[in-house]
């Protein structure tokens, strides 16, 4: 579904321009911190606060890489260019944590098909406690193949390129693990856990009441607008606030038709 009411082709071209530009910005910023931190960082008391800030920013950017790949899985990144769409998504997952796009793609679409039910790879599987649910989530998306690929990259970095192992841990492993926590807490656990407030529909997803700025900072709008994402999977992450407004207008129009008085 297009994020605007314009001519479909024009809307898709605009969606691709914005999506690819934002994806490129996220990847370039991530690579800048990754390369600087791993290969060129000089440790001292003066640089320690900067390093901490870099790790925090890199955690957020790593979350962004996964969200870009997630848009790719829905064809929302470059709607009329499936090869480009897939290439960017696969690249983002490789940079983030050597994840396999081909493996994650069917898993994520199964999540949308069976949301919050048996067969949903993101579901807690009967034990909704935070730690148990997180372990289930982690085991679903992390494989031996991924660990082998990460190990090979780390060996190239250390043995061939001379990178300190500690820098690899601090500027790649820590942000990747932090992003896993972000994605799980704000993109899975909080939106899909059962609450006193029932789910709005069969999508079994809540949107968190945290405001657009915090929604962007926590999980690129996949916390604050998660229900909207399930209602409109083809809407890219940056278009979710506008999608909520459009859905609200439609709901108001329907109410006006049903109750003209």
Automatic annotation (TrEMBL):
Keywords associated with the record: Membrane, Transmembrane, Transmembrane helix
GO BP annotations, alphabetical order: lipid metabolic process
Domain Fatty acid desaturase: 51-142, 147-249
Keyword match Transmembrane helix: yes
InterPro entries in UniProt: FA_desaturase_dom
Transmembrane segments: 20-41, 47-69, 147-163, 169-190
Statement: the UniProt record of this protein carries the keyword NAD: no
A Pfam family of this chain: FA_desaturase
UniProt name for this protein: Beta-carotene ketolase (CrtW type)
């Amino acid at each position: 579904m297009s994020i605007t009411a314009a001519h479909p082709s024009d809307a898709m071209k605009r969606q691709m321009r914005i999506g690819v530009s934002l994806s490129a910005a996220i990847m370039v910023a991530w690579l800048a911190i990754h390369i600087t931190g791993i290969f060129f960082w000089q440790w001292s008391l003066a640089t320690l606060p900067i390093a901490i800030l870099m790790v925090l920013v890199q955690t957020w950017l790593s979350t962004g890489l996964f969200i870009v790949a997630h848009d790719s899985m829905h064809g929302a990144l470059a709607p009329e260019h499936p090869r480009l769409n897939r290439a960017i998504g696969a690249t983002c997952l490789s940079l983030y944590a050597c994840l396999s796009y081909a493996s994650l793609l069917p898993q994520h679409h199964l999540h949308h098909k069976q949301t919050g039910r048996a067969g949903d790879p993101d579901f807690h599987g009967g034990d909704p406690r935070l730690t148990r649910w997180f372990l289930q989530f982690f085991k679903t998306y992390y494989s031996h193949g991924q660990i082998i690929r990460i190990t090979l990259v780390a060996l190239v970095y250390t043995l061939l390129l001379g990178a300190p192992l500690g820098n690899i841990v601090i500027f790649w492993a820590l942000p990747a693990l932090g992003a896993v926590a972000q994605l799980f807490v704000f993109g899975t656990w909080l939106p899909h856990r059962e609450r006193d407030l029932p789910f709005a529909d069969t999508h079994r997803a809540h949107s968190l009441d945290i405001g657009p700025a915090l929604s962007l900072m926590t999980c690129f709008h996949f916390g604050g607008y998660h229900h909207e994402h399930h209602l409109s999977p083809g809407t890219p992450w940056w278009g979710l606030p506008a999608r909520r407004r459009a859905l609200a207008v439609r709901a108001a129009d329907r109410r006006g038709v049903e109750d003209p008085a």
